[in-house]
Write the C-alpha cells for this entry.
Amino acid sequence: MDSLRDSAHRKELSGPASGSGPSRNLPNGPRWSLPKEFYRGRVRARRAAILAAILVTGAFAGLAAAGLMDPATFFGPHVARSDWAFAMTGARDLNARGLTGKGITVCLVDSGIDVLHPDFAHLHLVAWKDFVNLRLDPYDDNGHGTAMAGLIVASGSLHGVAPDVSLIVVKVINSAGFGSSSAVADGIRFCVDPFGDATRGADIISVSLGSKAPLFVATDVSLTAQWALDRGVILVASAGNDGGMFDDGDVESPGFVSLAIAVGAVDASGRIASFSSIGSSVNRTDPNLKPELTAPGVQLISTAPGAHYVTTTGTSGATALAAGIVALLLQAHPELRPGGSVGSANVLALKWALARSAAVRPGQAMPHDSYYGYGVIDGLRALSYL
C-alpha cells in the first residue's frame, strides 16, 4: 500500500507530457510568475520616482536660493533652536530686510572660540588675541565664548543674529571661567586697536562677563571701557547674574559705565529672569539708567566646542543677542559707526533709539524699570527710530 501511495504521489508531481515523450518532473517547489504587464509597470514606477526626486530636489534648491527655506532644517543635524528669542527681539525681521551684519566688526571679550565648529564654516575672523595662555591660534577651553559667538555669527544648523559680521575674539577667561580685571581691560584695548594702526578696530565690543568686585578693584576695566566709548565704540555688557534677595543693588562692571549698554535677561514669556541684576539710578539720567535693556537669556541653544551644542542661561546670552542686533542697526546706519571727531555722539544717538523703541512688559515701571530697563530690545522698532 505504501508503494502504491508513493507512486500516486509521484504522478501528482509529474508535469504534463511534451508531445509523445515521457513526462518531466517539476522542481520540488512551485515557480511563481507575474504577468509581463507588472514588470512594465514597475519600470514606469521607477522612472516616475526618479522624476519626482528630481522635481523635489529642484524645488528645494529654488526655495533655498530664494531664502525661503533652510536646507539645514531637513539635511543638517537635528538641533533644537531658540527661534522665539530671535522673533521676540525683531532680529529675524531685520534679517528679512537683508541685514546680516555685513561690513560691521564685533569684538568678543570672553573665553575664546572653537573656529572648527561646523556652524562657523563661513566665519570671518579678522583678529585673535589670547591674554591667558598666550597661544597664537584660536581655541576655547571653557566653552562660554563659543556659545556667545554662536548666538551672533552661527551659520549652519543654527543661525545667529548677524552671521556676516567680522569677528575679533579676545580670550581673557581661563578654562575654569575666571579672569583678571587687567586681562579684561587689555582685551577691550585690543578690540579698539587690534593691528596698532587705529583704523581697523571693532565697531561693537560685546562683554558677556561681569565682575562683582568693588569699584576700586574694577577701575582699570571701567576706565578702559569709558576710553573705548569716548572713541565712539559701542560697548554692550552683561548686567550680571545676581537677582533676588542677594542682589548687590547694581549692574556689574563694565556694564555700570555710563555710556555702556547693560543688558538684563528675560525668559520666553518676556518675564524678567530671577537672576538678572537690578540697576541703581543714583547719579544717572536717561538714556543711561541701568540696565538699559533686557533680552532673551533663558534656555538659549547655541554652539559648543567640538561640534556640539549647548543650552545657555544668563545675562551673557542676552548680551550677545543685543550686540548682534546693534550690528544690524549699524549696517543699516553706517554713520553711527565710530570714526572721525564725533566722539561718543553716535553711542548716545543709538542708546536713545534703543531706549525709546524697547518693548514695555506688563508691570514694568515707566519710563525706566530697575529690572527691565527701558524694556525688551526691539530691533525693528529701533530701526524706525534711527
